[in-house]
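Hey everyone, long-time lurker, first post.

I ran two proteins through the pipeline my lab uses and got sequence/structure pairs for each. Pasting them in order. The first:
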Amino acid sequence: MKDKIEFIKELIDLAEERELSELSIDFKGMKVSIKKESQPPPAPTMMVGAHMASMLTPSIQLQADAAGKAEEEPPSNHVPVNSPLAGVFYRASKPGSPLFVNPDDIVERDQVLCIVEAMKIMNEITSEIKGKVVKICKENAEVVGEGDTLFYLEPVE
């Protein structure tokens, strides 16, 4: 019983850390559902990766909190860099390392902009153009969905 309580506490901590509105699992016959009340409707469902994947079955699903995520229409010359997969967005290769890019940086074609971790695999996201970083749309360690805009670049010659 004590192990189950500790496991549930870890799930609550994970939900709070990732600012999730809902977390539901079915693990070894134990069903747990954690919901944060008074929140707007959650974002689309996505699979858990990272450190929880080894502890839980693949049927666990997380729903990212979409509160306050409305995006403004960017200028027509700004090129979006979208996430090709769902995962966790990281601005540096590891904690304490220098950030890959900052606002106003000029990036070269094929330069690494960030990492999206999915299922314990670190996927480098690179620039398809030479450009100036005009906006970073996600926070470090934020859960992102496939197709979410991560950056806006302004092309430069």
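...and the second, right after it:
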Amino acid sequence: MEKNIEKIKELLDDIRPFLNMEGGDIEFIKYDDGYVYVKLTGACAMCTNQDITLKENIEAYLKEEIKDIKEVINVSL
């Protein structure tokens, strides 16, 4: 599981520049039993397209790279 966490963090670092270009960012919260919990921040937190960004881009990319991932969930803390 620790290996997956490190890989998830690396992959999120790959995605981060694209979110930053739009004034947003992503924060890793935790990985638990195939579920990745993240927090979209900045412009991404208020964007009406955040669900599309999360599912069609971030989740699809992580699932492609790590087969154990079931879902990526945006949490508001």
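Reply from user beta_strand_b:
Welcome! Quick read of the second one: The mean pLDDT is 92. Helices lie at 2-21, 43-46, 50-65.
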